[in-house]
Amino acid sequence: MKQKIILAFLITSFSAQSFAFCDANGAFGIKFGDKVGKKAVRLQGGKASTFYSVQVPEPNPAFDEYQVRIDTKTKKIYEVIATKIITPMPTSRLGGLNPEQIKEGETKARNAAKSFLALLPKEQQEKITRNEYGSPQWHLAVSEEAILEINGYGPWDANIRCTNLSGELELGKRVLPELFE
């Protein structure tokens, strides 16, 4: 019963936007190519990219938190991530959860991802592709410049990623030039 209430909440929350928040320009009011604001909190990063926790200009109540991923060299945003927390993550990755809790969290995350899929317009549902290994992960080109990814694996969360392809390509060419020769 609780899962049905959560699913109904997610469907109600998304129905007005119908995934219009992810396009060639960005997501949730954040534009690709912009730099992170002063209120952003650095989460993790390396030579290639860095993740920041951010507050978005156009939040959706179905999500609990937002992140952006930037190119560490240019400092430009090339990915926006919206996350629905399923099970709070303990300090050690699987610590504190028994196998039953892990399975329940994975089921909830998969159901949340499927509810996101159900809200896509029919023509996008027909074009979206599922991960070739059968995991609950789907990809859709929302424009020539951006990809929408829906993820529902693991007991912790379900998320949506909106990625700018030219930003990711620029980073890839710099970090792994041998792949582009």
Written description of the protein model:
The protein has helices at 2-15, 99-118, 122-127, 165-175, and strands spanning 22-23, 26-27, 30-31, 41-45, 49-54, 65-71, 77-85, 129-130, 137-141, 146-151, 157-164. The model is unreliable at 1-19 (pLDDT under 50). The strands form 2 sheets. The protein has an 8-stranded antiparallel sheet. A 3-stranded antiparallel sheet has the order 1-2-3, with no helix packed on it. The chain has 4 helices and 11 strands; from the N terminus they run αβββββββααββββα. β6 and β7 form a beta hairpin.
Q: What gross morphology would you assign? A: globular
Strand numbers in spatial order across the main sheet: 4-5-6-7-11-10-9-8
Helix content: 25-40%
Number of helices: 4
Mean pLDDT: 81
Sheet bearing the most strands, described?
A: 8 strands, antiparallel
Structural class by helix and strand composition: alpha+beta
List the keywords:
28% helix; 11 strands; single chain; 8-stranded antiparallel sheet; 181 residues; globular; alpha+beta; 3-stranded antiparallel sheet
